[in-house]
Amino acid sequence: MRVAIIGCGKQAPKHIAGYRAAGVDIEPVLADLDEARARALAQAEQAEWSGDPKTLIGDRSIEAVHICTPTASHYNLIVTALEAGKHVFCEKPLCQTVGEAHNLAIRAGAKGLVGAVGYIYRFVPAFEWLHGLLNLEDGAPLGRPYFGIFRIGGRGSHQPWKHSVSGGGGARNEMMVHMLDLVLWCFGDLRNIQVLREGLLRPRRTIQGHSIAADAEDLVVLSATTSGGAELLLEADLLTPAFSQFAEVEGDNGSFFGSIQPHLPSFVFLERAVGELHAGRNELKHGGQSPFARQMAAFAEAVRRGPTGNLATFESSVALMETVSRLTGAVSGED
Predict the structure, then answer these.
(1) β partners of residue 199
(2) Is residue 156 left, alpha or beta, with left meaning phi > 0 and alpha meaning psi from -120 to 50?
(3) 28: cis peptide before it, omega within 30°?
(4) Which of 156, 172, 194, 221, CA to CA, is 20 to 30 A from 202?
């Protein structure tokens, strides 16, 4: 595939590396409003670059467009790409409002184009395991889930816009959406969502050698109830000096613990054996392709044959955006 990558910050090289690690043959063409940044990354990746993102999107040789720009710019860039007949992979979150998400899903569907969002946790072996455990037709090995904790903590202070409300940043958009997407994928719809704590603990940040005033929240704690009655706690922050992430689910036949971090154990502990899982501790061995490689391979496969498996589509992001909107008690931005 000949792929346009718009935005040459931290995520762009991960996308290229993901394709290459998965053995997908691509020709990346890079673009950024900062031409020097596009040129530098193109040189490092032995790729082409363009000084005009919109012209690049319109190039007939481009088959798919990756959006790796700040959240506030996603919607307009995606509309431009879809109108040009391009498949789209967008970094999370898809956009800023429920109305925008609906519009993008409808536009992509009407044109028969793949629209995908970068929710990488769907491709982590531990969470694929959890999804399978909770969605078996003949009953979940954990039994009836009744409690769960999902946590993600990041450092922050990477880009000013990530700590700006106007830029679409904050712990909710940058971090919590990952855990919400994971919970919705595993459990389905959520009820009784409550914001237990949302705040700004570090109002000043030093980013790229400059002190800036942050106005986007850097801590969010939620509670929610699944359709099956399990009580969940979700915590996300931009406060953790060393990245930390895990999920724990308790059921009346056992427990699950897993993480994207390979140094942490991922296991299921069962009181009674179920199928191939024995009573006691069942370990999941980390290894194989990286989640990024598997995600990029899934997108390339979707472009060829249509979305399947774990890929987060624009349609699934509508449900996620609706859930996020419920955190403020109102659905905003609907057309």
Answers:
(1) 219
(2) left
(3) no
(4) 194
Which string of DSSP letters, residue by residue, matches 61-129? T--EEEE-S-GGGHHHHHHHHHHTT-EEEEPSS--SSHHHHHHHHHHHHHHT--EEE--GGGGSHHHHH
For the chain, the residue count is: 335
Residue 56 is which amino acid?
L
Q: What are phi and psi of 199, to 5 degrees?
A: -160, 175
> Which range of residues forms the domain containing residue 245?
122-287
**Within this chain, do residues 259 and 145 fall inside the same structural domain, yes or no?**
yes
Which secondary structure element, helix H or strand E, spans residue 16, and what is its range?
A: helix 11-21
**Overall domain count for the chain:** 2
138 falls in which pLDDT band (50, 70, 90)?
low
d(CA 115, CA 302): 9
Round to the nearest angstrom and report the end-to-end CA distance of the chain: 34
Neighbours of 316 (CB within 10 A): 21
Task: Say whether both 108 and 75 belong to one domain.
Answer: yes
Q: Is the pLDDT of residue 38 over 50?
A: yes
209 Cβ neighbours under 8 A, 6+ residues apart: none
Q: What is the pLDDT of residues 267-285, one digit of tens each?
A: 999 999 998 899 999 998 8
**Residues in CB range of 186: below 8 A, 6 or more apart:** 127, 130, 131, 134, 135
Q: Give me the residue label for tokens 């598997």.
A: 294
User: Is the predicted pLDDT of residue 76 greater than 80, yes or no?
Assistant: yes
